[in-house]
């Protein structure tokens, strides 16, 4: 089963990289950019075909390595 | 004092910290990230600077899950001493042995230069050869040294006296201007609750010989060697 895990910084955590990207977009003259926050995407092939099992494996992966829950949130999406 | 210096894939300051410890009189042995135990009789576990696992995912994240880290956690739990410098500090934060996290420097630059620090606490196994308020001249070399934690943790660190060093200028003024990376409260190093774990971004092991510009880093290793 294919899955996508998205890791983003929690609200309120300063994001110097996002700020720099925001500045870069604005200096390109791209109109209409508000604020930018950057994060990470992991595309993961999960062995289990069972959705609940796959989700629990991925949750464990997020809690133990993929995200630092002090500063980051994660979101798990499983392909239909 | 028997110190075990742990090498992770991508550590590159293990030799320097071993030299600094030996110079101070400690016995130094090597440990490997894939080991499940620290060498018998280890008093101090050292996580050196470098770029473990190429800083992939987050600095120190993958190294903090290495087999040796269970042994380091157990050692710290028994009250054993643990020192993490630079990438070692990042590994300690990722492993949960120290609170908070080291984020990208506020100005996004990798900063490699001399830096003054103010000693915030001198009654610990790591810092007793210094005095409170002493200004020491060491080095920094990092891209992710911006210490961040939640407000509650910051309050705990400050009220329990767990800040080890703060960034300052040559005159000892702690200020935003002397803070190279945006760290909260100008924090350059923090202790664990029991003061047996220290993580710090600067490199005291760089300044242990007049040949390379100074000896202000010696105090840390001499404190430890006598512990």
From TrEMBL, chain A:
Entry keyword set: ATP-binding, Cytoplasm, Ligase, Nucleotide-binding, Purine biosynthesis
Gene Ontology biological process terms, A to Z: 'de novo' IMP biosynthetic process
Pathway given in the UniProt record: Purine metabolism; IMP biosynthesis via de novo pathway; 5-amino-1-(5-phospho-D-ribosyl)imidazole from N(2)-formyl-N(1)-(5-phospho-D-ribosyl)glycinamide: step 1/2
Domain of life: Bacteria
Keyword Thylakoid annotated: no
Gene Ontology MF annotations: ATP binding; phosphoribosylformylglycinamidine synthase activity
Reactions mediated catalytically: N(2)-formyl-N(1)-(5-phospho-beta-D-ribosyl)glycinamide + L-glutamine + ATP + H2O = 2-formamido-N(1)-(5-O-phospho-beta-D-ribosyl)acetamidine + L-glutamate + ADP + phosphate + H(+)
The keyword DNA-binding is annotated on this UniProt entry: no
First-level EC class: ligase
HAMAP family found in the cross-reference section: PurS (MF_01926)
Physiological role: Part of the phosphoribosylformylglycinamidine synthase complex involved in the purines biosynthetic pathway. Catalyzes the ATP-dependent conversion of formylglycinamide ribonucleotide (FGAR) and glutamine to yield formylglycinamidine ribonucleotide (FGAM) and glutamate. The FGAM synthase complex is composed of three subunits. PurQ produces an ammonia molecule by converting glutamine to glutamate. PurL transfers the ammonia molecule to FGAR to form FGAM in an ATP-dependent manner.
Family: Belongs to the PurS family.
UniProt protein name: Phosphoribosylformylglycinamidine synthase subunit PurS
Organism, scientific name: Chelatococcus caeni
UniProtKB/TrEMBL annotation, chain B:
Species whose genome carries this gene: Chelatococcus caeni
Alphabetical list of InterPro entries matching this protein: Class_I_gatase-like, PRibForGlyAmidine_synth_PurQ
Membrane-spanning intervals of the chain: none
Catalysed reactions, as listed in the record: N(2)-formyl-N(1)-(5-phospho-beta-D-ribosyl)glycinamide + L-glutamine + ATP + H2O = 2-formamido-N(1)-(5-O-phospho-beta-D-ribosyl)acetamidine + L-glutamate + ADP + phosphate + H(+); L-glutamine + H2O = L-glutamate + NH4(+)
Major localization class: cytoplasm
Molecular function GO terms recorded: ATP binding; glutaminase activity; phosphoribosylformylglycinamidine synthase activity
Active site, per annotation: 86 (nucleophile), 203, 205
A biological-process GO annotation: 'de novo' IMP biosynthetic process
Keywords: ATP-binding, Cytoplasm, Glutamine amidotransferase, Hydrolase, Ligase, Nucleotide-binding, Purine biosynthesis
Pathway participation: Purine metabolism; IMP biosynthesis via de novo pathway; 5-amino-1-(5-phospho-D-ribosyl)imidazole from N(2)-formyl-N(1)-(5-phospho-D-ribosyl)glycinamide: step 1/2
Protein name: Phosphoribosylformylglycinamidine synthase subunit PurQ
Annotated localization: Cytoplasm
Keyword Hydrolase on entry: yes
Nucleotidyltransferase is among the record's keywords: no
Function summary: Part of the phosphoribosylformylglycinamidine synthase complex involved in the purines biosynthetic pathway. Catalyzes the ATP-dependent conversion of formylglycinamide ribonucleotide (FGAR) and glutamine to yield formylglycinamidine ribonucleotide (FGAM) and glutamate. The FGAM synthase complex is composed of three subunits. PurQ produces an ammonia molecule by converting glutamine to glutamate. PurL transfers the ammonia molecule to FGAR to form FGAM in an ATP-dependent manner.
Cellular component, GO annotation: cytoplasm
Pfam families in UniProt: GATase_5
Enzyme Commission designation: 6.3.5.3, 3.5.1.2
Self-association and partners: Part of the FGAM synthase complex composed of 1 PurL, 1 PurQ and 2 PurS subunits.
């Amino acid at each position: 089963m294919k899955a996508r895990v998205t890791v983003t910084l929690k609200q309120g955590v300063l994001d110097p990289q996002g700020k720099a990207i925001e500045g870069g977009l604005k200096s390109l003259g791209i109109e209409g950019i508000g604020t930018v926050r950057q994060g990470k995407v992991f595309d993961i092939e999960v062995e289990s075909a069972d959705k609940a099992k796959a989700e629990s494996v991925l949750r464990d992966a997020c809690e133990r390595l993929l995200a630092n829950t002090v500063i980051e949130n994660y979101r798990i999406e499983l392909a239909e | 004092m028997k110190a075990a210096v742990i090498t992770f894939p991508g550590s590159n300051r293990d030799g320097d910290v071993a030299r600094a410890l030996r110079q101070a009189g400690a016995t130094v042995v090597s440990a490997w990230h894939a080991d499940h135990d620290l060498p018998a009789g280890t008093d101090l576990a050292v996580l050196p600077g470098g770029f473990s696992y190429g800083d992939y995912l987050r600095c120190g994240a993958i190294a903090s899950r290495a087999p040796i880290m269970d042994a380091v956690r157990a050692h710290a739990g028994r009250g054993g001493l643990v020192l993490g410098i630079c990438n070692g500090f990042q590994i300690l934060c990722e492993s949960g042995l120290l609170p908070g996290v080291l984020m990208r420097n506020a100005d996004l630059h990798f900063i490699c230069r001399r830096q003054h620090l103010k000693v915030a606490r001198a009654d610990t196994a790591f810092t007793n050869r210094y005095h409170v308020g002493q200004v020491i001249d060491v080095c920094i070399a990092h891209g992710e040294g911006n210490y961040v934690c939640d407000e509650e943790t910051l309050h705990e660190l400050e009220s329990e006296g767990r800040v080890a060093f703060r960034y300052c200028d040559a005159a000892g003024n702690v200020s935003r201007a002397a803070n190279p990376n945006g760290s909260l409260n100008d924090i350059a190093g923090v202790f664990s609750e029991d003061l047996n774990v220290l993580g710090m971004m600067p490199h005291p092991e760089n300044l242990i010989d007049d040949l390379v510009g100074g000896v202000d880093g010696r105090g840390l290793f001499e404190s430890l060697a006598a512990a």
